[in-house]
Structures are given as structure tokens and as C-alpha cells.
Amino acid sequence: MAVLNIVVLNPLADRHKEMIKAAEPNVNIIVSDQQNALEHMPVCHILATWGWAETRDLYQAAPHLEWIHSLSAGVEKLIFPEIQAADTVLTNSKGIHGIAVSEHVLAMILAFSRGLTLSIRQQDAKLWKRVPTIELHEHTLAIIGLGSIGREIAKKAKALGMNVLASKQELTTELFVDKLYPSDPESLLEMLAQADFVTVALPLTESTQNLIGLTQFKAMKPSAYFFNIARGAIVNEADLITALEQKLIAGAGLDVFSQEPLPESSPLWGMPNVIITPHVAALSPAYLDRAVKLFADNLIRFIQGREMINIVDKTKGY
């Protein structure tokens, strides 16, 4: 077998290169950044990049490219007409994010339920004053999108005694979900009306863009909190700002936005009932270890002609 050239658009530690070489010694690993990636494309057979990175020009310059792997779960910038019309395999890193993202969601939920958002502001002002709190026990969490991340969120919520609702395209038996709803608009509104906390855990596709807007926020309880750790474009941000200003919902925890970095002019920055984090929910010291392990497992399958893990349907976008 000829040597396979693998271009990785992210720094790799020696242990990561060793993991790939252990899966297949007959590879040449080229680590590059986005700026210099184009020069490696004429010899590239396999490209490992991020789903949000601009890749179309690289693809067009890579005549030998057979497989693109996304180091993220999202593949929004890896879906374009040329790849949709070709046999190029596209895979993602779905399944490795659940632990970190679910902990991030739980942290934001607890920050609101225990009044930490207010307490931190009062600490800055040296103000000794009790803040309202609630227990999560027997309160209801709704998860929009029950994939690997959604299941991890559900598991942690059940451990805290919460009632868990979730929406999913295919209705299945789920260990940590009390009630599962189909993904149609009417069922979504029914689920939202019951929730004290709502989190989005969907991929960004044409069908999920602007899925959550004023209609959905109006369906929620005025006491409910909304969280987005998926993709900013799934939520109509102007409608979210309106919902917060008009107190249609109690607050929001947001890790993703329609424009990133979030512009300084956004009203979200100054809202006391909003937690903002800079797209870090999935970050973990273990992230790249897990991503490279999955890639190495798939590399073996690719070379052996076996069915690969996490093949993306290029027509659906996930």
C-alpha cells in the first residue's frame, strides 16, 4: 500500500501522532494550520479539520482526497456542493463531547437555581444579601435533541432527581428520559410548556436553523431558563433578546451565538439574567485524546474497507 498523507489542521502532541501511527504505521502525518493548509492539498489523502473551518477551497485543491474527518461534531462548513456530489467520505467526532458539555449545562443550571449569578454580582459590590433559590429536585428539564450529548445531560439531570423530557426524530426507549416527544413543531411546543429548564442539543442543519424563536419562547413558562450549547444559528437571537427583555423567560445560559465572538454591541452582555461563555462547553483536557482515538479507530476501518464510525449523511448535514 502506498503511503497515505494525512493532513491535520490542529496541533498534535507526540502521543496523538503515536496513536495514529499505532493504528496504521504506513502514514505520513502533516500538521498544519488553516493559513498554510493549501500547500499540502495536492498530496493529501485524508484531511482532519474542524467542522466550522472554511474547507471548500482546500477540497477543490485536493485531487487525491478520499476522506474528511471533522474533529468536532458539527460539520456545517464541510457540506458544500462539490463534496455532496462526490464519493468523498465525511465523518465527524460525534460521541466524544457528552461528558464536558453535560457538565457545562449542569453548571449553568445550578448557577441559576442556586442564585449564583446574582451572588457573584453582589460579591463584586460587597453586598451581603440573600438571593432567591430553588431546588432542581422534581423540576423539569426539556432537552431539544437527544443525541449523545443530550443523553449525558439527561443522565446527570436524573441523578439530581429531575423530571426529564426530550425530543427526538425517532422515538426510542431511553433509560434517563421520562417522556420522549417527536420533533414536530406542535410536540415541541407541548414539551416546552412543561419545562423549568430547556436546553438545545441539536446539530445545525437547514431544518434546525432558526428553529427556536418567539413562538417557542412564548410557549415556555415565565419562570423557565433556556440554554444553548449547540449552535447559535439554531436560535433566532433577536427573538431571544426580546424574550429576555419582555421577561417571557427567566434567563438564559449561552455558549454559542449567531456571530462569534459575540459583538460588544449585543444587549446580551449587560443582562443580569444571562450567562455568557465563549463557545467552550466541549473543552476538556481529554478532548483531543478522545478525538484522535476515534479518528485512529476509523483509520483502521478506512484502510480495511470496513464500515466507518460516524459517517455523515451529506444531504442531511449530520
UniProtKB/TrEMBL annotation:
Keywords: NAD, Oxidoreductase
Matches recorded under CDD domains: 2-Hacid_dh_1
Domain annotation D-isomer specific 2-hydroxyacid dehydrogenase catalytic: ranges: 6-312
Gene Ontology terms, MF aspect: hydroxypyruvate reductase [NAD(P)H] activity
D-isomer specific 2-hydroxyacid dehydrogenase NAD-binding domain ranges (all copies): 106-281
Sequence similarity: Belongs to the D-isomer specific 2-hydroxyacid dehydrogenase family.
Protein name: Glyoxylate/hydroxypyruvate reductase B
